[in-house]
Amino acid sequence: MGRKLKWGILGTAEIARIAVIPAIQQSERGEVLGIASRDTNKAADAAREFDIPKSYGSYEELLADPEIGAVYIPLPNHLHEEWTIRAAEAGKHVLCEKPSSLSSAGTSRMIEACKSAGVIFAEAFMYRYHPKHRRIKEIIHSGEIGDIRGIHCTFTFNNADQADNVRFNKSMGGGSLYDVGVYPISAARMYLNREPEAVTVHALFSPEHDNVDMMASGLLEFPGGVNLTFDCGMWAANRSNMEILGSKGTIAMPKMFGWERTSVVPQIFVHVGSVTREERLKGFNSFELQADAFAEAVLDGVPLPYEPEDAVNNMKVIDACIESARSRKRVEIGSE
């Protein structure tokens, strides 16, 4: 099994409590050694709840602990850049929640700080570590569905009645594009292995929610006439679907970004002509797979499947999507 990576958690956000902390604790190569909050009592309560040995009343205290090897950052979006850089300067490896920051320029600064400090940086797109995506790539590359003509993806949920939710605070990086739009965009880039050239996005900006985009629908133009059409939202029925359209058939994933637990069997549907094939893979916890992959990168030097620059490229698209939604215009994405 080898050594274990000792983690510190910067904050007590819901995603950390319900998903990431339990996953690290269940992983083969990870151990949660400490958790920090600006509220000493909240940190202590979380430490007791999850049987974490150490708690800290500030993020600075956690970063100063020499026993902590890596940090997971689930803070509000506008704090990702600052605390990634401060963690890197403290010599800690960084797994940062998506979106990596509020701009591609901010993400570039984060990655440069990590490289300068000699630490590993990864954006926490947990879904990408599930083996079903490797299988989908195999089907695509086999030519079974022909040439890819387009991708359609949805990711919506409804928590619009949570008035104090940070997702509805514009200055803190709220909005559906930052929160869930990043997923279809990263997935399309992953499957197509190329970058989009332009975007057009229409959004619902809600005065009730600090004028963040509560719903957005978009078109991403990829080279060769291939496109991604997507919608994302925080004020709509729950959906998380993806369809890859080929010249001969389709691949459908009805639970594209689901938080798979070991009891869940993800499904892939391949339609070619009049024949539909259903493929079932063993259930995995994607958060656990992510934790082990990160630990292997830190402890054993095993390369992560996605370079840090992937986060910059994803943010370039998000930057363009937000600009398009606010200007109501098509926006081209520069190569620089």
From TrEMBL:
Residues 6-123 form the Gfo/Idh/MocA-like oxidoreductase N-terminal domain. GO terms for molecular function: nucleotide binding; oxidoreductase activity. Keywords: Oxidoreductase. Gene3D superfamilies: Dihydrodipicolinate Reductase, domain 2, NAD(P)-binding Rossmann-like Domain. It comes from the Bacteria. InterPro entries: Gfo/Idh/MocA-like_OxRdtase_N (IPR000683), Gfo/Idh/MocA_domain (IPR050984), GFO_IDH_MocA-like_dom (IPR055170), NAD(P)-bd_dom_sf (IPR036291). Signal peptide: none annotated. It holds the Pfam family GFO_IDH_MocA_C3. Residues 133-251 form the GFO/IDH/MocA-like oxidoreductase domain. Belongs to the Gfo/Idh/MocA family. This is Oxidoreductase. It comes from Paenibacillus kribbensis.
